Amino acid sequence: MIKEEKRMAAELATVEEQRESYLQEVRDLASVDEGNIKAESLGDNISKEREEAMKKKIELLKYSIQNISRREVLDRFGKGPHKVEMKLDFPESAGPGPDTFVIQLAPVQEMPHTVHTFLEQVYLGLWNGCSFFRNAPHVMQATPRAYSKNIGEDKESAFVDSGYFHLAFQEYSENYPHKKYTLGFAGRPAGPDFYINVWDNSQAHGPGGQKHHDLPSEADPCFGRIVEGLDTIERLQNLPSNRKSFHRFVEPVGIMSAQIIW
Question: Which of 3, 74, 157, 186 has the greatest number of CB atoms lying within 10 Å of its CB?
Fold first, then answer.
């Protein structure tokens, strides 16, 4: 089923590329001088039909990927609730304190593709030895990069080789918004970086909240919430960061381990 999911994801990416290529053709036609071709009337009906057909195929592929993901989660990880424990490696300058927190993932029926992707990343040990590198006012972000204890180690390649580097599409559920202490995947396409919302980002990271992306109507996938270890999160949040450098931690915090709690 994992191979089938990856095949569907590749097909979805191909269709998205075809759709964008076709839309560019329409935009190019629209820029042609009216004395030569009236693009607006030339392909208006055809373009609408092709656009709707592509949209339907994309939605069907998304639905298929979600169904495969849901079955894979149930077969490999059970019906849940699914929990992941993360143990952090704070710099010595932080002194002693709590270092562990627990994530409860979104219900698989709400976010099947995203939950499956994150569970596989954790199951394969991909987050072990990675780091939290950003401490912005609204989020704290983790990334597949080494930290002081494993400087120079290539963490990103393992994500790429696993096939779980990022999501196939921007999955989102209105029933699971970006409330305080929830987790979301960053970027377009989403992943592998994830972040912890340290305030309510439901609007900013929900549909239409990020206008700088090519498709501003999309949202960041929200896929889990912190249910234990808020003292660790507060400790992490209180570490110094550089406001002039993307709010990077002065000293990145390592992810010593991430494991599924069965």
Answer: 186
